[in-house]
Amino acid sequence: MIIDCHGHYTTAPKQLQAYRDDQIAALKSGSRPSDRGTLTISDDELRESVQPQLKFQRDRGTDLTIFSPRASAMAHHIGDATTSLHWSQHCNDLIYRVCGLFPDKFVGVCQLPQTPGVPPANCIEELERCVTELGFIGCNLNPDPSGGHWTAPPLTDRYWYPFYEKMVELDVPAMVHVSASCNANFHATGAHYINADTTAFMQFIQADLFKDFPTLRMIIPHGGGAVPYHWGRYRGLAQDMKRPLLTDLIRDNVFFDTCVYHQAGIDLLLKIVPADNILFGSEMVGAVRGLDPETGKYYDDTKRYIDHSSLSADAKAKILEGNARKVYPRINKLLPA
Amino acid sequence: MIIDCHGHYTTAPKQLQAYRDDQIAALKSGSRPSDRGTLTISDDELRESVQPQLKFQRDRGTDLTIFSPRASAMAHHIGDATTSLHWSQHCNDLIYRVCGLFPDKFVGVCQLPQTPGVPPANCIEELERCVTELGFIGCNLNPDPSGGHWTAPPLTDRYWYPFYEKMVELDVPAMVHVSASCNANFHATGAHYINADTTAFMQFIQADLFKDFPTLRMIIPHGGGAVPYHWGRYRGLAQDMKRPLLTDLIRDNVFFDTCVYHQAGIDLLLKIVPADNILFGSEMVGAVRGLDPETGKYYDDTKRYIDHSSLSADAKAKILEGNARKVYPRINKLLPA
């Protein structure tokens, strides 16, 4: 079984965006609705909407996608905690329904109702609902709910600890994933995403988060941002700062996905980062949707790059399946062994 | 001749920091001195202070360092435009004196007196002084004078154009280089530097800056941040956005240095980015000062990685010398042909 750990519901029926547009219009008009309103989408519409994902799964030979709401649309900087909660609940409920319609093709990961200035403890209830009631296996955690202004404390700050306690209790990991940028300096998928990945990794080097939470697991997407390319810099910085070896620091706690969209990048990742710390991911139907004219294949068909790498069969098996089962253990209750 | 395009004066005599400490103390006390004050350092002290750089040049077989004030100490977020001007002038004057003492070992690049909220046109006078009076060949341009809050417009915004006009007139390039971070999310050399590199490159993809300034040249340090590792992502994003091919976009205008501190990273850079767009750099006596226990050599001895790469002799010659002469043409007036 091949598990893609990084898929977002980027093809939701248009009613979802209409709901969001109404929500934003209400905010602009000065009214902040206190009830979450309704969203009407039929099962047939949901089935139809994920046909692109299902076709790519078939074409690329993958089996299951760990599926979460569209990352760029989380936009935690819009409105307040109530806005964010309503929006997150609707988005998560749709993921739940898609997973119910295609239980062997999608497993759910939730969006969190984060809001700038509001402690992440505020997200515990929605995490618990998604995991215990909807059968989700993880969450996407935004280190910068401000959308490019970086006003929250670092991920290693005690500000985040109550939320981590719940993650540990539920035994679910988080993918560290920012959302849209409202800072003109940062293109969302071309700068903000990659910067956040790099930033989170350096934060993890600087502090003892994983001493405090030995079973806390974080997936840094997009191949770990700049980290594998600058592995020598990070090894050297950790050494100068008297911090642990990177391989020790990440062993049970930090994982990179394979959302790197060319062979040479994937080859570097696979060469540098231990296979135990890499999870297959594509973020397909995502940031980069075109065909690479140099290969005639989709840029984001990352399984091809792994297939074409010189990695051992054992290491490939870990990356394509085993590590996902280890990092997201709740998946094992949903899948055949 | 081997030219290291990326060296900062990180070993200045302690009087320099004492001057800065006094300047900051005066700001804190509420007094903002209107004269720039004095800094007394003897030529012998300057000679002594750069012995580490000279020793590394000898040990590593490099000849000349393009030398600028310590990047992390620029700290444009401290004080106001007058603070920044006084500090920059002192720092630049020291570079001038070091270059005068060792004219075959160092060539100067200036710090700019940038300040958050003050248009970069404000820096034209100091650039002109450094280039026309002190013989400098380029400048370091900070895309985020706020130090991690990213409050300035993108580098492609017309906000920066008057400064670019002067760069073009003087025929000097800029290295895009941030300074210290005062945002707790961003470790300076482990996150802020690398993020800025990635951010600047994406800004260049998004806009027509180099149509407006066909001879403007920007060096993106630290191996281009995350860019070569994510080259497929950037090719794909540019394609989806109907922007030029990356190789066309960067050809005469965007260059990466080789400050990547392990062999596999350098190998990726050299494989992916055209040799015409890479300049040898080490940032030695900089961010990472230790010996790599895996090699027994300094992490930042980047010349070793280039020597050990499979690049052709012709390409190596471009990277080690030719491209620096092309990108910083004023260097040719100072050096034998």
What class, by secondary structure content of chain A?
Answer: alpha/beta
Helix content of chain A: 40-55%
What proportion strand of chain A? 5-15%
Which residue ranges of chain A are poorly predicted, with pLDDT under 50 across at least 5 consecutive positions?
Answer: none
- Strand and helix order of chain A: EHHHEHEEHEHEHHEHHEHEEEHHH
- How many alpha or pi helices of chain A? 14
Shape of chain A: globular
Most residues in contact, chain pair and counts: A-B, 57 and 57 residues
Mean of the pLDDT scores of chain A? 97
Radius of gyration computed on alpha carbons of chain A: 19 Å
Oligomeric state of the chains present here? homodimer
Q: How many strands, which pairing sense, and closed or not: the largest β-sheet of chain A?
A: 6 strands, parallel
Straight-line distance between termini of chain A: 10 Å
The beta-strand count of chain A equals: 11
The side-by-side strand order for the widest beta sheet of chain A comes to 4-5-6-7-8-9
Textual characterization of the structure:
The structure is a homodimer of 337-residue chains. Chain A has 337 residues and is an alpha/beta fold. The first copy, chain A, has 14 helices and eleven strands. In chain A, strands 4-5-6-7-8-9 form a six-stranded parallel beta sheet. A three-stranded parallel beta sheet of chain A has the order 1-2-3. Chain A is globular and about 55 Å long. The termini of chain A are close together. The model of chain A has no long low-confidence stretch (mean pLDDT 97). At the A-B interface, helix 7, helix 9 and helix 11 of A face helix 7, helix 9 and helix 11 of B.
